[in-house]
């Protein structure tokens, strides 16, 4: 049976690093995978991503940002996610709507109620089956990100913004313990991946 798995976390949580590990594990378990990301995942979505992450776009209104996230998501769902799930594939998505609640909701202070309206309209009953939250204290995450030469528009936000994002993720995980698997991503990579392996073994029933 298909599974829709999303990977979430604040800046520097190690999503890119660990998605490779997750994909390798699931492929070895014989799963037919589609690996994708948000914002992005389609030609239109990747163009919207470029707009959203460009640090030169300094005056994007929060509501514009929110609507662009959902515009990219609508295309992604129609073009990639739903067709893959309908074919029985497993979809591994680097960020999804929890990121919107965390960044545009807690970060930009848009109400959960407003986001929920768009979520319902764009997604109908589509929700992730499993969400892996790579949780890292903000200072550790930012230390990792600060090693990068180029920082995107979100990575240039203030500490308070990232504190709110982290709190929002943890509170969503607490509210939906069946869907969320929280991994302590501040640990050394080998330990993070041992925790991931334990989660994936249960998901695969291996
Ligand atoms: N966004 C997205 C919204 O605002 N709303 C939305 O609805 C959506 C969908 C782009 C931005 O868009 C925003 C949120 C984001 O700001 P993104 O491309 O997923 O989304 O952005 P990033 O958070 O930058 O994702 P990355 O996967 O590129 O970065 P990570 O999570 O920082 O991952 P990674 O693997 O590059 O790791 C960072 C560094 O840490 C090291 C790695 O080697 C790397 O150098 N590292 C570790 N070091 C020590 N110990 C460990 N355990 C380590 N794990 C990783």
Brief sketch in words of this structure:
With 206 residues, this protein is an alpha/beta fold. It contains eight helices and five strands; from the N terminus they run βαβααβααβααβα.
Could you characterize the architecture of this molecule?
With 206 residues, the chain is an alpha/beta fold. The chain has one domain: Rossmann fold (3-Layer(aba) Sandwich). Helices cover 55% and strands 13% of the residues. It contains eight helices and five strands, in the order βαβααβααβααβα. Strands 2-3-1-4-5 form a five-stranded parallel beta sheet, with helices on both faces. α2 runs antiparallel to α3 and α3 packs parallel to α5. The longest helix is centred in the middle third of the chain and has 25 residues. The chain is globular and about 50 Å long. The site of P1-(5'-adenosyl)P5-(5'-thymidyl)pentaphosphate has 25 residues, from α1, α4, α6 and α8.
Number of helices: 8
The 3D shape can be described as globular
Helix content: 55-70%
Per CATH, what is the topology?
A: Rossmann fold
- The CATH class turns out to be Alpha Beta
Name of the CATH superfamily: P-loop containing nucleotide triphosphate hydrolases
List the strand order in the largest sheet: 2-3-1-4-5
Number of domains: 1
Give the uncertain stretches in residue-range form.
none
Terminal residue distance = 15 Å
Total strands: 5
């Amino acid at each position: 049976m298909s599974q829709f798995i999303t990977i979430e976390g604040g800046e520097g949580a190690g999503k890119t690093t660990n998605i490779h590990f997750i994909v390798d594990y699931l492929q070895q378990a014989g799963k037919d995978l589609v690996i994708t990301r948000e914002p992005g995942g389609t030609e239109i979505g990747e163009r919207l991503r470029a707009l959203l992450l460009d640090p030169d776009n300094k005056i994007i209104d929060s509501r514009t940002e929110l609507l662009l996230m959902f515009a990219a998501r609508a295309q992604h769902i129609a073009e990639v996610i739903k067709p893959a799930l309908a074919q029985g594939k497993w979809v591994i998505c680097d960020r999804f709507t929890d990121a919107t609640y965390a960044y545009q909701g807690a970060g930009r202070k848009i109400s959960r109620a407003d986001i929920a309206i768009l979520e319902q309209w764009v997604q109908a009953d589509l929700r992730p089956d499993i969400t892996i939250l790579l949780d890292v204290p903000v200072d550790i995450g930012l230390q990792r990100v600060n090693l990068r030469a180029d920082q995107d528009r979100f990575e240039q936000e203030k500490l308070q913004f990232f504190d709110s994002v982290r709190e929002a993720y943890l509170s969503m995980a607490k509210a939906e313990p069946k869907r969320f698997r929280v991994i302590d991503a501040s640990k050394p990579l080998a330990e993070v991946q041992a925790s991931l392996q334990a989660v994936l073994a249960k998901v695969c029933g291996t």
